[in-house]
Amino acid sequence: MSPARTPDPLLTLLENHVPARIEDYALIGDMQTAALVGRDGAVDWLCLPRFDSPAVFAGLLGTDEHGFWRIAPGVAAPAHRRRYRGDSLILEQEWDTAEGTVRVVDFMPPRGTAAPQLIRVVEGVTGTVRMRSAVRMRFSYGRVVPWVHKVADGGRTRTVAVAGPDSVWLDGEAETYGQDLTTYADFTVTAGERIAFALTWQASHLGAPEQPDAEEALAATEGFWRDWVAQCTYQGPYREAVVRSLITLKGLTYAPTGGIVAAPTTSLPEDIGGVRNWDYRYTWLRDATITLSSLLRTGYRDEARAWREWLLRAVAGDPENLQIMYGIAGERELVETELDWLPGYEGSRPVRIGNGAAGQLQLDVYGEVVEALHLAQTTGLARNDHAHLLQLRLISWLEEHWREPDEGIWEVRGPRRHFVHSKVMAWVAVDRTVKLLEQTACEGPLERWRALRDEIHEDVCTHGYDPDRNTFTQSYGSSELDASLLLIPQVGFLPPDDKRVIGTVEAIQRELSTEDGFVLRYPTTGGVDGLPGDEGAFLACSFWLADALAMIGRGDEARELFDQLLSIRNDLGLLAEEWDPRLRRQVGNFPQAFSHVPLIDTALRLG
Which of 31, 88, 427, 434 could staple 225 via S-S, CB 3.0–4.6 A? Predict the structure, then answer.
């Protein structure tokens, strides 16, 4: 590192800032990892080289001591304007200062097999503005301080940070200097001038990565997103919201394998200050399956085909031990551990990596996987005999185990129960497989599985339905409700005009709604999930209610609720997992695939 020097005293950019509200972040990514950028110009979260790699910038879950990269004018203030450049993941933020106006353009070029890069271009709009870049690289989720030094490479000086297997290379068109274990660059930008910086990850045992051409990379990135969005077949009244959600889902896809992460973050709390903090940087079969449905119905067959191939590789020859989630390349070992050196987002501890729910039994997953395979077949994806064989083996296992209690769709950490939604989805798995045997040349015990389908249906209607209240319940013998019951008409278990369906929808709307009309997953006061604390309204469930209302003939209410849900998206169109009605802010991991997929589904239904 070059010798310390005195920073420009007119640049008063505050260090040790407090992470922003969850919804105040923007997502950028390259379909292999992603970064969250705050309104103050700080990248507070970035894992390299993959979504599930250790973070280089982990300030989101702590302080600036745990890593960040901020580029902004010499004022500690949020940008006055921000937007994505058209239909892309290229972020533009603008500050108005007494000296003039400046724009910072942030993006990550889709990379294929190249090294991952985060590129930041500072553009002068008017006047001459003093700027500062401050980079504090901390490897292993903020725990490891790297060795930072300068090297000469091809006539240019580059800054490199090295620790263990990782190295990060910082290139820029402004001179850098080191102070307080931070790399700074103080510079000015005038109207029409563009100054670029780039951060590139490379395995430390390899040579220097190629120096990026920022302008070329920006043009290529813009072209990539323009071409991808052009494939969208949806032209309905909610196109802006649908396209932004599709772009977000694409940004959460791990391109080399087709796996889709639930979110690019870990441990953003469902209850601010509480313990409901989980790592979502993995591929849940449930989430990925409903994502497949949305992609197929909006024209994205290549992504759907890639996901089906990922599924076949992940499950491989062992469908009897189907996991509810896998790593983005199909890894099975997702050991849950706690990072005790991180204080957590707004004091929400513990910070977890890995996810112990990977070992749970969730019978509904069998239904969601089979439904996805059925959808792929009925929408014309090329026949795959391995997929058909997998489906038959899954049903053979389910035939022996559907009567067992499980942890259910919400991954409860309490005792296993006979969750009604799990049984309904077991019925879905058998029903779709019966249709497969009826409509194709596949061979299987058709009559036996028809009888099994009827048996599961009767069991649910007998033990999971409360005739006195005219509603299905969360689990056999319970009185609690559960928002997952809203899916009963969507999956075809009962028709929308069945009195039991209407009664269930009305009961959930009455008993699980918040003051602003959104929907809780289930009552947390009864301790069914085995966790202390509370949580916000689950956004996927709120979209499900809008769907259910439309299906039972209450279309005006459905549209009103949908419009209300769209209104709580952040200014960039992004949604976290939940909405806290008390704090009136988004909570949970961000952005959340399980929120954006039902947004698309509801838009398709209402549009």
Answer: 88
